[in-house]
From TrEMBL, chains A, B:
GO terms for molecular function: DNA-binding transcription factor activity; transcription cis-regulatory region binding. The keyword Metal-binding does not apply. InterPro entries: HTH_LacI, LacI/GalR-like_sensor, Lambda_DNA-bd_dom_sf, Peripla_BP_I. This is LacI family DNA-binding transcriptional regulator. Pfam families: LacI (PF00356), Peripla_BP_3 (PF13377). It comes from Fusibacillus kribbianus.
Length: 345, 345
DNA sequence: TTGTACGCGTTATCAT
DNA sequence: ATGATAACGCGTACAA
């Protein structure tokens, strides 16, 4: 069932059928009606592949993440999908599993599949990204690359502000021994969240470097949150009075450990986190957290990539930091002056 | 950078280059080496679109779900992806958001995109599925369709057995007033889970129909679990002593409600569920549950669709019910004979 | 307004 | 072993 069949049956040329299908060029209303009826009758649908070969457009964008099971990615993905669907684009999904080699081959694969554009979430292979970006528009989130050869956009929430604010909140509640359970340091998102924490601590004169025992580098997944908690909380006397856990997933792991070890929140430990409202509002506890608006981020990412695809211009790089919002919960215990003093000493 | 450029630079014909790229036909080792070097030098990568047009193969499979944010789908997706990647296939992802119209247009879209095959998760539009299946191989999960015109496979865990076993467990612990929070009745997965519960209750002479107040039809997501709990548990005197919650997501909603209302598990309420180990083992509580092995299911789905694609035969329909495994937790309180009697009366 | 014909980048058939 | 060439199904410049 091709365009030829339709043309033959309608007694017109393939050009006319094509014009009717794409509403392009001029076509007599009567012939249009005729052609349309044949199209309906034969249930003709054009071959997208052939059309792509001709127009050099697939109407597909690629979304690359490190692990599909991470809810941050899935919520982002859902938001992206909504926009894409609206504009008649569809999504091809790839997961690197955190493997740099796999990431490289995925990016290579994307460039030969003639996908129209790509959204890369937490990709780290700078050279591969630049290589891909030479052929198609690319926007980034989670990790940015500073190489001037990269001409694309970067979108993320204001991670520095988010952890700065949460850390300040803990400090103003009297906490001083504040730990951070963070993501991989090779991602901008992690480094920003660490810096926010670091800067807030510095205000009270505390200098915390990356090798401080209060700092844990996890991998943004549930099990690393669990392991981090195990490491940092096992000794009741040494442990921090508060923890900044920098994403949803690791937060679940921390809560699991606390529950197993009968560590009461907030009585024995205060906890704050950064994440997604839809996840955090359904925990058994109401955490104090900074909300990253994943709907907005996903929508922004999708609109940016579509803009770059449609206006074929190589627009200069743009960077967006979306605001995060404070949610007050009941996971922070204000320390009395005595407690605070004890701990400071 | 096309195959022509490579041919020209290597001083051979496009046919030879094609043979080298695809390791097809015969080619002199020396010319092969030469051609390969030119390919490397020019960093030539073939145009997948053109190749698809010729071979009628895209090496893409479509995965359709109702809501990407549901972890059941994401875990399944991850498993499917692993297999696809191994066989050099990639995945296009679609989300119906539970909208029948959107489902129909997605399935239509898939058939014109010349995707090689489709995995449909909880799709309900029988006619659209059959229509799609006329053109490409299709395998189903979550919801099956009984129409003989559908020639594909169905894979799911043994849902009847899972809820039968959990209900029996509650019964043998003395519970009688057992509620079920279930998914949409238009899905086979929900109906099977309900039947398992129903059959187990029937063993003790209790006939429970779908309109019984002990039965709640939710939508397999967190908020419907929350709402269900709210409805079923609000009156302390009337409420069931135990609940069978038929998936992960709704379980989170139930736990949230219980936590808010200070309903202690298992003291005030026993709870059992069906779901994914990776999720359930990281709750703050250790639930008694039946594990559905999503890795195995996903892998099976992927292999089945690939099999149907590669052996172009229209194999007869096959149905797979994968076993679920019992995990004993601490969310079921054994009722003393007195308590049990009180409740029965 | 409509039709003819070429080309998109491959693969595959058939000669050589 | 290799090369010339015809498809694959569509869009579109150009001609009519």
């Amino acid at each position: 069932m091709t365009i030829k069949d339709v043309a033959a049956k309608a007694g017109v040329s393939v050009a006319t059928v094509s014009r009717v299908m794409n509403a392009s060029g001029t076509v007599n209303p009567e012939t249009e009606k005729l052609v349309q009826s044949v199209i309906d009758e034969l249930e003709y649908s054009p071959n997208g592949i052939a059309s792509s070969l001709k127009t050099d457009r697939t109407h597909i964008i690629g979304y690359v993440v490190t692990d599909i099971r991470n809810t941050v990615f899935t919520f982002l993905m859902a938001a992206i999908q909504n926009v894409l669907w609206e504009y008649n684009y569809s999504m091809m999904l790839f997961s690197t599993n955190g493997d740099p080699d796999k990431e490289a081959s995925i990016l290579r694969f994307i460039s030969m599949q003639k996908i129209d554009g790509a959204i890369l979430n937490s990709c780290t292979n700078t050279q591969s990204i630049i290589q891909l970006n030479k052929k198609i528009p690319v926007v980034l989130t989670g990790n940015d690359i500073s190489d001037p050869n990269f001409i694309g956009d970067f979108v993320d929430s204001d991670n520095h502000a988010a952890s700065y604010m949460l850390t300040s909140n803990l400090l103003s509640n009297g906490h001083r021994k504040i730990g951070i359970i963070n993501g991989p340091n090779n991602l901008v998102v992690s480094r920003e969240r660490f810096r926010g924490y670091q800067d807030a601590m510095a205000v009270l004169g505390m200098t915390i470097n990356i090798d401080n025992p209060l700092v844990y580098e996890g991998s943004f997944d549930v099990s690393s949150g669990y392991l981090a908690a195990k490491k940092m909380l096992s000794s009741a006397s040494m442990r921090p009075t508060a923890l900044l856990v920098t994403n949803n997933e690791m937060m679940k792991g921390v809560l699991k450990y606390c529950s197993e070890q009968q560590i009461k929140i907030p009585d024995d430990l205060s906890v704050v986190t950064i994440g997604n409202r839809h996840e955090l509002d359904y925990l058994y506890i109401s955490p104090t957290y900074m909300e990253t608006n994943l709907e907005e981020m996903g929508e922004r990412l999708a609109r940016l990539i579509l803009e770059r695809i449609e206006t074929k211009k190589r627009l200069p790089k743009r960077i967006f930091k979306l605001p995060a919002f404070f949610h007050d919960g009941n996971t922070v215990k204000p320390l009395t002056p005595i407690e605070a003093n004890t701990i400071i000493s």
